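We were asked to recover a plausible sequence for a given structure. The inputs and outputs are reproduced exactly as logged, with field labels preserved.

PROBLEM: sequence recovery
POSITIONS: 86
GIVEN STRUCTURE:
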């Protein structure tokens, strides 16, 4: 699942770039969702606790607040990092 998502990172960035700047609210909404998704992917990638512990895997509140504050740069930085590791 994680490797499949990584294949789509380039398309996510292209879509984000294609949205006109006048739709800044939409760009922010899009960025928040994808930045949280990438943060969650970092937690579950190569994490055996996901299968063996009886706990939820969640991003921390501090990370959520950071994403909300700078969602567009969080999303773009995360997507570019994934692309650089392919």
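RECOVERED SEQUENCE:
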């Amino acid at each position: 699942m994680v490797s499949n998502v990584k294949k789509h990172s380039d398309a996510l960035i292209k879509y984000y770039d294609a949205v006109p700047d006048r739709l800044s609210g939409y760009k922010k909404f899009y960025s928040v969702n994808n930045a949280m998704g990438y943060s969650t992917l970092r937690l579950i990638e190569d994490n055996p606790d996901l299968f063996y512990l009886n706990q939820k895997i969640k991003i921390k509140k501090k990370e959520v607040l950071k994403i909300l504050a700078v969602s567009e740069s969080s999303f773009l930085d995360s997507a570019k990092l994934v692309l650089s590791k392919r």
